[in-house]
Write a structure and sequence with these properties.
Blueprint: H1 2-21, E1 26-27, E2 30-31, E3 37-38, E4 41-42, E5 54-58, E6 61-65
Antiparallel strand pairs: 1-4, 2-3, 5-6
Length: 97
């Protein structure tokens, strides 16, 4: 009887871990039309339902949804790179001898 309870407990814990580890797509970070960078995020986000595992929306506004047919093809987006900040970029310096 103890062995059966141990097996049931192990099965329950394994099942719960698999459910909690299930993750959706990653929505890549993007630049909006004003040039502001938005960090990427893992679906579902905090306020999303658990079935919102697909990255949806447009290249300039991304969110998680549950509809696979509304999936955003992030590979076609050209605004998913952070703008380089050249103000603090290293400059080459050649010493004069």
């Amino acid at each position: 009887m103890v062995r059966l309870l141990n097996c049931l407990l192990l099965g329950y814990l394994t099942w719960n871990l698999r459910i909690s580890d299930a993750q959706g797509e990653y929505c890549h970070g993007w630049l909006d039309s004003n040039g502001n960078y938005h960090e990427g995020f893992q679906c579902p986000e905090d306020l999303d339902t658990m079935d919102a595992t697909v990255c949806c929306g447009s290249c300039s506004l991304r969110y998680c949804c549950a509809a696979p047919d509304a999936r955003l093809d992030q590979g076609s987006c050209t605004n998913d790179r952070e703008v380089d900040n050249t103000e603090f970029a290293a400059h080459s310096c050649t010493p004069s001898i």
